[in-house]
Amino acid sequence: MTKKTFGVIGVCGANGNLIARILNQRGYDVIGTDLSSSEKCRFKKSLEGYDIELYYGETPDEFFEKSDCIVPPASLSKNSAIFQKIGDSLFELNDVIEKFSPDKPVFGITGTNGKTTTTTLLKKIAYDNGITPSEHNLEKMQGNAEYIPILQSRLDGDVAILEVGTFGVPGTVKRIVKNSNIQSGLITNITPDHLNDLGSFMDYAHVKGEFIEELNGKQLIVNGQDPTIMGLLKEYNFEGDLITFGVDETFDRINPKECVCGREIKVKELISGCGYYFCPCGITTPQVDYIATNIDLKNRTFDLHTPDEKLTVKMAMDGLHNVYNVVGVIIAAHEFLKLPYDKILESIATFSGVEGRMEKVAEIDSKEIYVDYAHNPAGVQTVLSQFKYLFGDFTCVITISSESGDEGDLKIFNSALEFSKYVIPASSASQKTAQELLLKDSSLAEKIIFDSVDDFVKKGTLGASHDEVKDGIKKALGCDCNLIVAIGEAAVKFKSCVDDLKL
Predict the structure, then answer these.
(1) Cα separation of 238 and 231, whole Å?
(2) How far apart are CA 243 and CA 147, in angstroms?
């Protein structure tokens, strides 16, 4: 494409911001505009250091006069006055994707739980070893769905390491993998989530299965102790370079999980939905390629048996679920980044985790307060079981409104009842669940700290307001436990509320 000046409309939005940066990095003159003011431009900071002329507020005629090609937001109505001004200068989002391909190796990470921790750790290992991954740099934006991973893969960097998410919509994962040119990837697990959108676990699993389908014939690293993943590999006749991993540990419980064949199989769970399993259709726990043994969660160490040697791994994170995450990352760093094990282990030993994952946020009156982003039934069960194992008694504050609806809310609440000494429902969804449980069993009143049901309207998994999170933690401080665990997106988003409680 000859040298042109691109005008990008909506540079304060995620897509517009990324498009402007991609074009500028590719050597084009770029000017940007947005209806937001400079002070309210959400992603303005990520535009710093770029040679991009910016207009805020009403778009001036000068913007259109200077632009050879104009990129509008995909959401801009073709009947709008500003769209009419674009005329023959139109250059759309799909044109950007088609004309500017990723120019680097691309690795994708998907799954229901552990994506962010795994992605962040793999990037840290890359940085520690002089490899620069492309970064979307959209402040407080997870960026694992829609067009963000696709555009991120086109930003400058030695490699792209992408978190591939989905809101349960068929075709989403396939589009990301294909348009990001992902050459290899990792699947952490597949457990029930977003079921309101799709109606069944298997429908949701097959959305994740698009990752397998698109990477067929390529390299794929998977949790071999997840029967759903192994079943999908069989269903899609995966024939690429498959690397499996797992842990050697005593199973915690036996729980049912739907197999891809339609049967219900009993999983001897190590973490939620993963462990030892057998189905008459032929799906059974494989002898994995990488296995963690001699796991000492108290001291955060384990041995990792690779196809070539045994490694001693020291983590700075807690929990068996993070053993799974770390093993997957070790494989990815060795296979994709081509790094020796000793360099990988050095980085792992200094990675204390992602903000909002088993994060200690305060200590008030000798009581430690943790928050964790866990927001679906499997994630909550896994995290709370690890808190119980590592720390003993705790009070659980629930700030979640499950994407799986009432069924998910009940599963989350039951996990809280199972693992914690006291349960404080802070979200309206958990309060309604508490009310229903107390009507059935009044003895639970000794364990559930509950007043009444509020009317907060959830936003996605954001099931509680700032004041409700604060009130829930305040109630927890009155319980006779020295550990408080607040779970859910709201707990993480509003974790600063603990500062008010210190006064």
Answers:
(1) 10
(2) 28
d(CA 157, CA 98): 19
Mean pLDDT of 474-497: 93
| Backbone angles phi and psi of 194, in degrees to 5 | 55, 30
Q: pTM for this one?
A: 0.88
Separation of alpha carbons 299 and 317, rounded Å:
10
DSSP code for 205: H
Give 387's contacts (C-beta < 8 A, 6+ positions apart): 358, 370, 394, 419, 483, 485
Q: Cα-atom radius of gyration of the chain, to the nearest Å?
A: 24
Q: Is 70 exposed, middle or buried (0-12, 13-18, 19+ CB in 10 A)?
A: buried
Matching residue, tokens 């500028």: 24
| Lookup result for tokens 């801009």 | 76
- Letter string b/e over residues 189-208, b meaning 16 or more CB atoms within 10 A of that residue's CB: bbbbbbbebbeebbebbbbb
- If DSSP codes are grouped into helix, strand and coil, which group holds residue 295? strand
Average pLDDT over residues 139-151: 85
Q: pLDDT of 268-311, one tens digit each?
A: 999 999 999 999 999 999 999 999 999 999 999 999 999 999 99
User: What are the Cα distances from residue 175, in Å, to 94, 147, 179, 232, 459?
Assistant: 12, 9, 6, 18, 25
Q: Cα(376)–Cα(400) distance, rounded to whole angstroms?
A: 8
Q: Which two tokens stand for residue 409?
A: 């809310």
Tell me how far apart the alpha carbons of residues 374 and 384 are, in angstroms, rounded to a whole number. 9
